[in-house]
């Protein structure tokens, strides 16, 4: 179906946005569902994010996904938000309501949990201690979602300890910070280990964590998806651990966004993972 004047319009906003895979994913679902809709990329200047968002109040478009570097500022623009977005301190989904208000949500954390459910069926990410490597926005979002999901202990380990401590203080409860010197002991009891640093992006070495120290039942997640099989995931597999890749997270966070924009579930008839892998230039697995 072609896009008519009555189309529902949504999009993704970031700076830069050129390499975003969200337009590919959402437009493939739109086409497969036969919707009169479109999903476009937007790259407002960094200084102009708030003005761009304010101009959309009242529903000029239905909603936006928001990515780096605007997720924290997106939350601040909203009139209301989900508990998870508040705890994560960031929003990747804005919906422009007809009454002029903006609703914010965070689907990155649920995307993480859903990706684990897809790639390691039956594994409960909240059953045991979680170790998160990193203390940026991605780490904070993962910690918030797993804390809300009932994980008994979540420890952030980061090169800059103060950033991990700030997240632990902000989320509180089961979320703690630890120095890199404590990592081996934490890995020894971990049920779930997540790389939320940018290490490994573009094919470099991932975090130096001793994944072989984890219990055999542990699951290892890498939020980095370029390359798909990061050095970190390859080391986890070599140690016999089950793994979850960052691409599945990206695909899963798109699902509730699509539902919020277009009011229907993404059709299962299109293999968006294969499309995304083709765009990434990776062999389909
Ligand atoms: P995002 O918001 O996407 O999570 P970020 O805030 O830039 O991105 O966070 C990047 C993470 O990768 C941080 O935890 C960073 O560690 P610092 O807080 O110490 O900067 C981590 N990181 C990046 N390069 C690193 C490196 N060479 N060694 C260790 N950690 C690194």
Features:
285 residues, alpha/beta, Rossmann fold, 2 domains, six-stranded mixed β-sheet, six-stranded parallel β-sheet, 11 helices, 37% helix, 17% strand, globular, binds 2'-monophosphoadenosine-5'-diphosphate
Please describe what this structure looks like.
The protein is of the alpha/beta class and 285 residues long. The protein folds into 2 domains: 8-106 and 253-280, Leucine Dehydrogenase, chain A, domain 1 (Rossmann fold), CATH 3.40.50.10860; 109-244, Rossmann fold (3-Layer(aba) Sandwich), CATH 3.40.50. Helix content is 37%, strand content 17%. It contains 11 helices and 12 strands. It has helices at residues 22-33, 49-54, 71-77, 83-88, 108-119, 137-148, 161-171, 183-188, 231-238, 246-262, 272-280, and strands at residues 8-13, 37-42, 63-66, 80-81, 93-96, 102-105, 130-133, 154-157, 175-178, 192-195, 219-222, 242-244. Strand 1 (8-13), helix 1 (22-33) and strand 2 form a beta-alpha-beta unit. Helix 1 (22-33) packs across helix 10, helix 5 crosses helix 6 and helix 5 crosses helix 10. The longest helix is centred in the last third of the chain and has 17 residues, at 246-262. 47% of the residues are buried. The structure holds 2'-monophosphoadenosine-5'-diphosphate (ATR). The site of 2'-monophosphoadenosine-5'-diphosphate has 15 residues, from helix 6.
């Amino acid at each position: 179906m072609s896009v008519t004047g009555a189309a529902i319009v949504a999009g993704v906003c970031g700076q830069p946005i050129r390499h975003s895979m969200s337009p590919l994913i959402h437009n493939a679902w739109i086409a497969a569902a036969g919707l009169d809709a479109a999903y476009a990329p937007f790259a407002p200047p960094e200084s102009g994010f708030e003005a761009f968002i304010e101009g959309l109040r009242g529903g000029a478009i239905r909603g936006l996904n928001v990515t780096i570097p605007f997720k924290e500022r997106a939350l601040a623009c909203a009139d209301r938000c989900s508990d998870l977005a508040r705890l994560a301190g960031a929003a990747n989904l804005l919906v422009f309501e007809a009454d002029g208000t903006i609703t914010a949500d965070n689907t990155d954390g649920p995307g993480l949990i859903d990706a684990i459910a897809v790639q390691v069926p039956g594994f409960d990410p909240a059953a045991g201690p979680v170790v998160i490597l990193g203390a940026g926005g991605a780490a904070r979002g993962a910690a918030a979602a797993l804390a809300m999901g009932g994980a008994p202990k979540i420890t952030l380990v980061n090169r800059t300890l103060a950033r991990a401590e700030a997240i632990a203080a902000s989320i509180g409860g089961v979320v703690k910070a630890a120095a890199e010197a404590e990592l081996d002991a934490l890995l020894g009891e971990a049920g779930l280990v997540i790389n939320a640093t940018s290490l490994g992006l573009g094919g470099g070495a991932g975090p130096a964590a001793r994944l072989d120290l984890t219990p055999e039942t542990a699951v290892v997640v890498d939020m980095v998806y370029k390359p798909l099989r990061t050095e970190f995931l390859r080391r986890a597999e070599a140690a016999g651990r089950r793994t979850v890749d960052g691409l599945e997270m990206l695909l899963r966070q798109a699902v509730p966004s699509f539902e919020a924009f277009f009011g229907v579930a993404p059709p299962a008839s299109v293999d968006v993972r294969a499309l995304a892998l083709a765009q990434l230039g990776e062999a389909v697995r």
